[in-house]
Amino acid sequence: MKALRWHGKGDIRCETVPDPEIEHPRDAIIKVTSCAICGSDLHLYNHFMPGMKKGDIVGHEFMGEVVEVGQDARGALKVGDRVVVPFTIICGECDQCRRGNFSVCERTNRNAELAATAFGHTTAGLFGYTHLTGGYPGGQAEYVRVPFADKTHIKIPDGLTDEQVLFLGDIFPTGWQAAVQCDIEPTDTVAIWGAGPVGQMAIRSAVLLGAKQVVAIDRLPERLSMARAGGAITINFEEESVIERLNELTNGKGPEKCIDSVGLESHVSMSHPDTVLDRAKQAVMLESDRPHVLREMIYVCRPAGVISVPGVYGGLVDKIPFGALMNKGLTLRTGQTHVNRWTDDLLRRIQEGQIDPSFVITHTVGLEQGPEMYEIFRDKKDGCIKVVIKP
Amino acid sequence: MPHHRSRRSPQMSRQSADALARGLGWFSIALGAVEVFGGRSVARWLGMEQNEKLLRAYGVREIMTGVGILASRDPTPWIWGRVAGDALDLATLGKGLTDPNAERDRVVMATGAVASVTVLDIICANALTGQPPQPRQLRWDYSDRSGLPKPAQQMRGAASDFRAPRDMRIPEALRPYKQPQGNEFPRPSM
Lengths: 391, 190
What we know:
The complex is a heterodimer.
Chain A: E1 2-8, E2 11-16, E3 28-37, H1 41-45, E4 56-57, E5 61-69, E6 82-85, E7 88-89, H2 95-98, H3 112-119, E8 125-126, E9 143-146, E10 154-155, H4 162-165, H5 171-180, E11 189-193, H6 197-208, E12 213-218, H7 221-229, E13 233-236, H8 242-249, E14 257-260, H9 273-283, H10 292-300, E15 306-309, H11 322-327, E16 331-334, H12 339-351, E17 363-366, H13 370-378, E18 387-390
Parallel strand pairs in A: 11-12, 11-14, 12-13, 14-15, 15-16, 17-18
Antiparallel strand pairs in A: 1-2, 1-4, 3-5, 3-9, 3-18, 5-6, 6-10, 7-8
Chain B: H1 4-8, H2 14-37, H3 39-46, H4 52-71, H5 76-97, H6 104-128, H7 152-155
C-alpha cells in the first residue's frame, strides 16, 4: 500500500510499504477513505517532537471502512462498518479510561516506559505520533491497523459525508474540549490564540456554548476572515497590540477565559522579542518549545480566570510568569483530547445540523500530493487552513 | 518645503522602506557588536585610543537601535534615532580629523562610510514618515465559511443543553458573584 512516511525534518515521502495485518485479537484493519493533515503533524514535520524514527507512517486524523476485524473486536465492529478513528488509542478498561480521561489511557502506549521517563507517567498511545506515544503507524495511508479497535472507534451512521465527520477524530473534539474546559458562562469573553483548524473549532464551540464574546487572535487575514464568519471579533497581532485590544474589549478587565490553540511553535517575530529568544534557545537545545502565547495569556487573563491549553507542547519552556499565574488565581487546564468522551454528543450535533465542521477544509488532494501539502500547510501558502487527503 | 515629502514618497513604497529599515536594523546590530566587542581594535585603527569607551557606548546605542527597529511594528522613530546617532558619529569623527594623533586617512574613510549610511538612513526615515504600516492583504476570503446553519449571533448558546462534566467545571468559588439582594454584599454563587 501507499503511505506518507517521515524521513526527517521537512521530509515526508509517499512510499510503498507492506499492508498492515492483524497483530492482536482486539485489532481491526481500516481502509482509509479520508484523512487530514493536523497542525500537530507540523511539529513532527519541523522535527520539534522527539521520538520519531525514519520511515514512520504519519497521520492521526482519519476515517474509513472496516475491512478486517480481530477475534476480540468482533462484538463491537464488523467488516463494512464506517468508522472515524480517534487519534488517542484507548483500552476502555483502565482507571483513566473509566473516568473518561482517555488521552491518558494507562494501557495503550506500548512504549509506556519511555513515556514515563519523559513525562513521569505514561499517556495514551497515539497514531503516527512519535515513539513516545507508542510508535503506532499513522493513518495517512491506504490502510491502517487500529489497536484496541473494539473501543478505539466512532461508528458513523449513513447519510453523513466523510468531510462532515472526519474531524470527530481530532480537531472538532479538541476545540470543543478546549471550550468545555473553560466552563463558559454567558457573561464570558473567550479569547482564542491561533485561528488554525483547532482555533476555528474552538471559536464555534465557544459560540455554541454561549460565550458573550469570542475573540480570535492570529496574523493571517484568511484565517481571521474564517474566524469572523464563525462569530469572533478578530485581532491581527501584526497590526495591533493583543494586550491593549483585549483589555479594550473587556473594559480593562481582561478575558475571563483564554484558549491556546497555538502550542509549541509560536510565530517568531521581531515585534515579540521573546519569540526570537525562544527560537534561538530551541536552535541550541536550551528550550524545546516556544511559549509566547502562554506568557501573553497569563498576563492578560482576568484574575480568577481560566487558561485552557489544547495546543501541543512537547517538553520544556522558559520564562513562564508563574508569579502572575499564582497571584491572579488562574486555573490552568491542559491535555490531549479525551476524544471519545465528546464524540457521541458532537456526532448528534452534526446530525442535527447545529454545525458542519467541513467548513474548515481548504484543500483536498490525493496521497501522492501529501508531501507537497505538508509544505504548503507549514508555510501557510495558498490560503491553506485544512488539508484533507483521499488515499 | 511643504511638498518635499510628497515628492519623495512615491519613489519608495512603504514595503520597500520597511525592507530597507529591516536591513538597517541588522546592520545596526552588527556594527554595534563590532564596536562593543572590538572597541579597542577599532579605536587603535583610527588612532583614537582615548575614545575607546565612547566607541563601546556608541556600540550599545547601535545594538539598542537595531533591536528597536526590528522589534517595533513601526520602525520610523527608531530610524530617525539612527539619523541622530549618525550625527553623533560624524561629530566624533570630525573631532578626530583635527586630532594630530589620529590616523587621518582612516578617519576620512570611516567618515565617508558613516556619511553614506547616514544618507540611507535619511532616505529610509523620510520614506517611512507619514506612511502608515501596510496591513497584510486578504487574498483568500473565507467569510462565507461559518460552519453554522444560522448567523453566529443566532447560534450563540445553541449547545446550552450541554452539561460540563464535574471534573471540567471551574471551582464554584471562582464563578461570577450573584447579584446582591437589597443591602447585602455580593456573594459567590456557592
